[in-house]
Each structure stands twice: as structure tokens, then as C-alpha cells.
Design brief:
With about 800 residues, this protein is of the alpha/beta class. About 30% of the residues lie in helices and about 20% in strands. The protein contains 20 helices and 30 strands. Strands 23-24-25-26-27-28-29-30 form an eight-stranded parallel beta barrel, surrounded by five helices. Belongs to the glycosyl hydrolase 2 family.
Length: about 800
């Protein structure tokens, strides 16, 4: 399902804000009939937000059943009823939503974390107002995902029980929209990418429309981050090739834009509908015991998280979202898991844009009646049974997977699907329940690996389903729920456990949960559980084991921040396993993780097998001659994640500065006041003067896209071979037809800067006449940057990549 988008053919009206609110007076919604009357503003709630913690009222917080939201909505008068269709879009309603326009039911959706919509074209009219009522139920049963059971107490109060360890926040926790789009419209887009040996990106797309449309009426354009068109095609299904593609990399995202346009059958210039979708070119695969992104091994560092914050509950909050991401990046985290449900789509949009890797999870948590019983040493009833997890549960689980994949299939940040968290995978019936769901996930998306999170009771000897999955994901708490306070014993048990999985399956393993609770401010010298020190030591113990087990390819701490749960004697104001408090204050263990993960980042950009120092000058001379003959680089290329260019790889020999160089390079292509063509003229002249065939080759291609002609480049080649070429008497006059007056001033100025050390007043005056102060500084620093890069390529003998066609200087 495509996210709402406002553009030249579509419109979106946000319905976020303050809504009137009421609790149901009985479990029977038909008896209440909230759609038939006005809900008074006695109680009001914000949307998006969970309603539970908004009020100082325990009755509302612990309510089980339906609640009602209501507001008045005015349809924009500018909307046209003839050629437009009107929809209500709900990003989520937890856990079931029924939508009424005036007194008509227009939607009924079960599933609390994925979007749904209602076509209301025949009910509303432009310029008119209607009453919108939304009934939301938080009830969980064995007919829902996640499951639960409602208990009626002796006093008549209804109590919701469930197996998952987080509070059952409910309501309209995500945005609501009124949307319009054309009658003939784009209804869905699917993009699948691959990387060719040449370095080109292959982009396969499929467009679905509300009505049949001829292929000649569907126009496809791919735009790069500069807004330049790099590929075009026609038809609802096709394949495009992007030469010298920029890859989406962890920590170094690059997003292309797929623009889909439907043109009129009678007039191809008339635009009926358009939609723009961001996507990244990257590949995901599992090979042996490695998890590969773009063919390179990737090691996950990060967290299991929750959508949870004070007052808002699970309500989407962009301030908390961005703050969380910056805290993770500051610590060196590169990934997270959407435990234990799909997060707001804005979270994935942000991860796409910033190169953060996501393991995306369904809401299927709590499919295990043995966890609570096992913790307290009790005998558990069977999980897979007619009165427990049954065919109806499986059908709801099936729907949850379909809706998750449909929403998130195009996000490059999403690298794996988690079918379920901590199911009873060692119980009879587990395989019969899960195998069809795994097959469904692969059918819906054959491009991503599939996993589930295994809990400790289902050991490698007992588990019945792990062979169905691509990656082994383990949730383990040795030293907390067992071996409590004895980290030495816990370390031995953990290593034995991991080696058992490794020896049996040989698959890559991610520790998707490990952690100990810590009360912020509680300190202890010895290994005292609940202290900040114990939490840090617990994590360090797990890390020692990870480093000794070859197949471990990731570590996700449970949890990023403290979060709310139901009240119990083991939960004091929620779960305290966060390394941050609920309001994002760091505990001591944050420094443990920051030190480890930032060190891992530095290690990832260092060569695995650095060249040894020669023992003799003679050997060194022979080596250098061999390098020259074979056109080999003088230094080995480090195995750097996210670096398609050889120059970027060699920069990683200096881990202290590599990120700074990358940021400056990015700024040159995004943030300069200097025009793109003038930027390329500066770069071309600099690389020609400094004789860098490598940089010249790459920028010959880039400059052509920015409007630099072959004839202009030929002149710059000549300028590179002669000092003072452009300042020679009569030279620029002879080139008047090739360069504008502004371009001539630029070439004269940059040549003087390079030939330097000073620039004559006359040339300075010409430059200042044509360029702003900012542009002058940008030209000088740009020249200096490419002096450095040119010298790196010439001194280190950097080779051109296989996809680069050499361009002679």
C-alpha cells in the first residue's frame, strides 16, 4: 500500500490533532452506536497518541474493549468529484478499527500496526462537512496477532491477559489522512534491485493501476540525488539499467527516485496521475555463515527497540524518533530490530535516508504459553491447540505478514523479515504452524532472508523449526533469568549454547536480545543485579563470547530504552533493561557499548591483512617496479563496507579522518552555491593540472551530465599540460565561443591559484565581479580538496574500477 503523497495530481489533508473521545459503555458496540450521535468534548485526546496515559484516570488506562474517537471533517472545495476519488487513510488503529462516515460503516480492519484505508467517494462532496467516528478495540484473543485472553474478574471487571512483556498501548497512535487521487491512478509499485558485475545497477519495477492502462501510457523516470534523470522506460513492468550506480550502503545511504506517470490516452502530454518513490540499489544475501549486503559481510550492532515514550505511549513522535537515531549513531550502532511489531513508516523512511539497517518484525509475539510458566517452574498448557494457537490465529498471522511486506517491501533499509518472536518452537505443532508462514513470506518477497527470534527454552537439541530459516536469531539472558549474579558460570553456558547452534546448522547467528535490568542511579562494587555496573559487566561478558564464536554476525542489545509493561512484582514501572532510561538519559552501560561499537567501526575500515614492512630496500624496489608494471595500487585496498570506489577504500587507512573526507566530498555535491557545471570545471582543471587520470576519468562522465562539452574538456586537457595556459596573451579571446565570460573568469582564477602561490589583483577583480564571496571560497577549497585526491591517486597508483572507462589526459 502506497503512502499518501501530495503532488500535482494528488492531495492530502492531515486529520491529526485533537479529537473528542469516549469509552464504550459495554462490550457490545452495536448497543452503543457511537456513530449515530455526537460525542461531547468532555474528554479529548491527541492523534497520534496512545490514549492510555493521557488522563489521570486508572479506569481509562486499564480499559478493555472499545473506545470512540470523533471529529468533524470538511472536504476541500477545490476537489473535483468528476475525476477524483476520496479516501480515508489510517496508518494504524491498535488493535482493531471500525470507521464510520456520518452513520455509514466504511472500514473494519484488524491488526494494530499496519495501515488501511476506506474509499468514501460516493459518500462525501467537496465543500461539505461530515462526521468521522472511529471505534478502536484493544482486545486480544487467539483470533488476533499478538494473541491474548480476556478474563472477567469476580467484581465484573474485564482484564486483558497476554504473553508479551510490554504494555498494551492502544488507540490511534499514528496519523490519519483524508486523501484524493485521480480516478485512473497508481495503486502500487514494487521495486527490486540488483548490482551487475560492471558496477551498474539493475532496477526491476512493477506498477499496478486502479484501471487497466496501456504500457505506452505509463512513463517511468529514475532521478538521482541531484535531480538528474539517469534512466527512463515505459510500461507497467520493465527493467532499467543505471550505469556507475551509487549503492545504498549501511552508514552511507544513496536514494534514487522512481517517478511514475500515467498519461492520457487521447493526449500523451496530459498527466492523469503521478507518484514518486524513493529506493536504494543494494543486494542482500546469506552465504555460508555470513550475512552480505552488496556482497560484503555485514556485522549488526544495535538494539531491539520499542515505540514507547512517556505520555504518548506508542504514539509516533518525530522528535523522539530523530533523537533515538542520533543516540544510536553516536554510540556506533548501525541497525535495529522493530521489536515486536512494525514501526511507523516514517521510521523506515528515516532509516532509508540515513543508511540504518532494519530487521523488520511482524506483531507475532506471545505465541508461547510456556514462557511465564517456565520462569516460575510451572507446567504450561500446550501452545498449539484448538483453544489456544489455532487455525484462526494462523490466519491472522498470515494477514499480518501480507500487510507488513506490502507496506515495507520497497525500503532499502529493511534487510530481513522476522516472522515471529519467541514462539514455542520446541512444542509439537510448531512446525505445522510456522512452515506455511515462512513459505508465504518467501513467496511475497524472495529477495530478503527470513528469520525468527528463538527463546532459551527451545535449545538447539529441542527446536523443531530453525532449518526453515536463513539466519539464526537468539534471545538469551544467561546471567539474568538464570545464573543470576554469576557471570562466570553464565559465560560458560552461553558459549556452549552458541557453539551448539553453530555446529548443528552452520548458519550466521545474531543475538537479537541480551541484556540485564538496571535501575538508573543504583551502583555497586560487586556483581549486584539491578545495578548499572552489573548491566555493563553483563554486556561485556556476552561480547567476549561473541568474539570467540565465528558464526556470530550481530548483536542487538535488549533494550535501547526502558519501556512500560503491565504491573507485576518483577516490573517496577516497566522493564529496566534499557541502556537509556525511558526519557533517554544514559546509564553506565552506554559507554561500554559506545567503546565497543565505535572500535568495531574503526576496525571495519582497516585492512584485514595489512602489508608487512619490507626487510630490504632491494625487495622494496622490485615490489615497486612490479606494481608499476601490473598497474597495482601501492597500498592494499581495505575491505570497506559501503565504498564502491578504490579511492574511498584507500582513505580508510586513516580511520581518524576517513569520515571527514566523505562528509566534505558529499557537501561538494549537495551544498555548494557554486553551480554544478562550474564545480566540474574547477575539478577538471585541478585534476588535469595534477595529472590524475583516475579523477579525470570519473569527472569526465560527471561533467558531461552537468553540461561540460567534449570541446571544453579538450581545452582543459591542454591547460593541464602548460603552466599559465589561460593567461597567455590572446588565449581566452580565441576561446570566446567555447566559454562564457563567467567560465573564463573561473578558469583564469583557478589556474592562478594552482600555479600560485598568489593571485594577481587583476585576476582577483575579475573573479569577484563574476562570483560571490561564498563562491570564491568554495572554488579555492574545492581545488584544494581535489589536489589532495589527485595526489592520493598518483602517488598510491590507484587503479580505475572495472566499470570505469579510462579517459586519457
Amino acid at each position: 500500500m502506497l503512502k499518501p503523497q501530495a503532488n500535482s495530481t494528488r492531495d492530502v489533508v492531515s486529520l491529526d490533532g485533537i479529537w473528542n473521545f469516549a469509552l464504550a459503555s459495554s462490550p457490545d458496540i452495536e448497543a452503543d452506536a457511537p456513530w449515530s450521535k455526537l460525542i461531547p468534548p468532555k474528554l479529548q485526546v491527541p492523534v497520534p497518541a496512545s490514549y492510555n496515559d493521557i488522563f489521570a484516570d486508572e479506569k481509562i488506562r486499564s480499559h478493555v474493549g472499545w473506545v470512540y474517537y470523533q471529529r468533524q471533517v470538511t472536504v476541500p472545495r477545490r476537489w473535483s468529484p468528476e475525476d477524483q476519488r476520496y479516501f480515508l487513510r489510517f496508518d494504524a488503529a491498535t488493535h482493531r478499527g471500525r470507521v464510520y462516515v456520518n452513520e455509514k460503516l466504511v472500514a473494519d480492519h484488524a491488526g494494530g500496526y499496519t495501515p488501511f484505508q476506506a474509499n468514501i467517494t460516493d459518500i462525501i462532496k467537496p465543500g461539505e462537512r461530515f462526521r468521522l467516528t472511529v471505534a478502536v478495540s484493544n482486545e486480544l484473543s487467539w483470533e488476533t496477532i499478538p494473541p491474548g485472553k480476556i478474563q472477567t474478574l469476580a467484581n465484573g471487571k474485564r482484564k486483558q491477559n497476554y504473553q508479551h512483556d510490554f504494555f498494551n498501548y492502544s488507540g490511534l497512535a499514528r496519523s490519519v489522512y483524508l486523501c484524493s487521487k485521480p480516478a485512473v491512478s497508481i495503486s502500487d509499485i514494487t521495486v527490486v534491485t540488483d548490482i551487475l558485475e560492471s558496477g551498474a545497477g539493475k532496477v526491476q519495477y512493477k506498477v499496478e493501476t486502479s484501471q487497466p492502462v496501456g504500457d505506452d501510457k505509463v512513463k517511468i523516470s529514475v532521478l538521482d540525488e541531484e535531480g538528474l534523470t539517469v534512466a527512463q522506460a515505459n510500461g507497467t513492468k520493465n527493467e532499467l539499467t543505471i550505469n556507475s550506480a551509487h549503492l545504498w550502503q549501511p552508514g552511507a545511504a544513496y536514494l534514487y527516485q522512481l517517478r511514475v506517470e500515467i498519461l492520457s490516452g487521447s493526449n500523451k502530454d496530459e498527466l492523469l496521475d503521478t507518484y514518486e518513490l524513493f529506493f536504494g540499489i543494494r543486494t542482500i544475501s546469506v552465504k555460508g555463515n555470513q550475512f552480505l549486503i552488496n556482497g560484503k559481510p555485514f556485522y549488526f550492532t544495535g538494539f531491539g527497540k520499542h515505540e514507547d515514550s512517556p505520555i504518548r505511549g506508542k504514539g509516533f513522535d518525530p522528535a523522539y524518533m530523530i533523537h533515538d537515531f542520533h543516540l544510536m549513531r553516536w554510540m556506533g550502532a548501525n541497525s535495529f530490530r522493530t521489536a515486536h511489531y512494525p514501526y511507523a513508516e516514517e521510521v523506515l523512511d528515516y532509516a532509508d535516508r540515513h543508511g540504518i539497517v532494519v530487521i523488520n518484525e511482524t506483531p507475532a509475539v506471545g505465541i508461547n504459553l510456556g514462557i511465564i510458566a517456565g520462569v516460575f517452574g510451572l507446567k504450561a498448557p500446550p501452545t498449539f491447540a484448538p483453544d489456544a494457537c489455532n487455525e484462526t490465529t494462523q490466519a491472522a498471522h498470515d494477514q499480518a505478514i501480507r500487510e507488513l511486506v506490502a507496506r515495507d517491501k520497497n525500503h532499502p533499509s529493511v534487510v530481513m523479515w522476522t516472522v515471529t518472536n519467541e514462539p514455542a518452537s520446541a512444542e509439537p505443532g510448531a512446525r505445522e504452524y510456522l512452515e506455511p508462514l515462512v513459505s508465504l513470506t518467501r513467496e511475497l518477497d524472495p529477495t530478503r532472508p527470513v528469520c525468527f527470534a528463538n527463546m532459551g527454552f527451545a535449545t538447539f537439541e529441542k527446536d523443531l523449526v530453525t532449518d526453515l530459516f536463513d539466519v539464526i536469531c537468539l534471545n538469551r539472558y544467561y546471567g539474568w533469568y538464570s545464573q543470576t549474579g554469576d557471570l562466570e558460570e553464565a559465560e560458560q553456558v552461553l558459549e556452549k549454547d552458541l557453539l551448539g547452534w553453530q555446529d548443528k546448522y552452520g548458519k550466521p547467528m545474531i543475538m537479537t536480545e541480551y541484556g540485564a535490568e538496571a535501575v538508573a542511579g543504583l551502583h555497586a562494587v560487586c556483581d549486584v543485579p539491578w545495578s548499572e555496573e552489573y548491566q555493563g559487566k553483563f554486556l561485556e561478558m556476552f561480547h567476549r563470547v561473541f568474539d570467540r564464536v565465528e558464526n556470530v554476525v550481530g548483536e542487538h542489545v535488549w533494550n535501547f530504552a526502558d519501556f512500560q509493561t503491565t504491573s507485576s512484582i518483577t516490573r517496577v514501572d516497566g522493564n529496566k533493561k534499557g541502556v537509556f532510561t525511558r526519557d533517554r538519559k544514559p546509564k553506565g552501560s552506554v559507554q561500554v557499548l559506545k567503546a565497543r561499537w565505535t572500535a568495531k567501526q574503526a576496525k571495519d575500515v582497516l585492512p584485514r591483512h595489512p602489508a608487512s614492512r619490507p626487510t630490504s630496500e632491494t625487495i622494496r624496489t622490485v615490489q615497486m617496479k612490479f606494481i608499476k608494471i601490473m598497474n597495482m595500487a601501492r597500498l592494499p585496498y581495505p575491505d570497506v563496507k559501503g565504498a564502491p570506489l578504490n579511492i574511498s577504500k584507500l582513505l580508510a587507512h586513516s580511520p581518524a579522518t576517513v569520515n571527514h573526507w566523505s562528509k566534505i566530498a558529499g557537501a561538494h555535491f549537495k551544498d555548494l552555491e557554486l553551480s554544478s557545471k562550474n564545480r566540474e570545471l574547477v575539478i577538471l582543471l585541478s585534476t588535469a593540472k595534477f595529472r590524475s587520470t583516475y579523477e579525470w576519468t570519473h569527472h569526465s562522465t560527471v561533467s558531461a551530465k552537468e553540461g561540460v562539452t567534449d570541446a571544453q574538456r579538450e581545452v582543459i586537457v591542454q591547460a593541464g599540460r602548460q603552466k599559465g595556459y589561460f593567461s597567455a596573451q590572446g588565449k581566452l579571446e580565441s576561446l570566446a565561443e567555447l566559454f562564457t565570460s563567467k567560465e573564463k573568469a573561473l578558469l583564469l582564477f583557478i589556474e592562478a591559484v594552482i600555479d600560485g602561490p598568489e593571485v594577481a589583483d587583476e585576476l582577483w577583480t575579475k573573479a569577484k565581479t563574476e562570483f560571490s564571496d561564498r563562491e570564491v571560497v568554495e572554488m579555492i577549497t574545492l581545488q584544494g580538496f581535489y589536489y589532495t585526491f589527485s595526489r592520493l591517486t598518483t602517488v598510491l597508483n590507484v587503479e580505475l574500477e572495472p566499470f570505469a572507462k579510462p579517459s586519457k589526459l
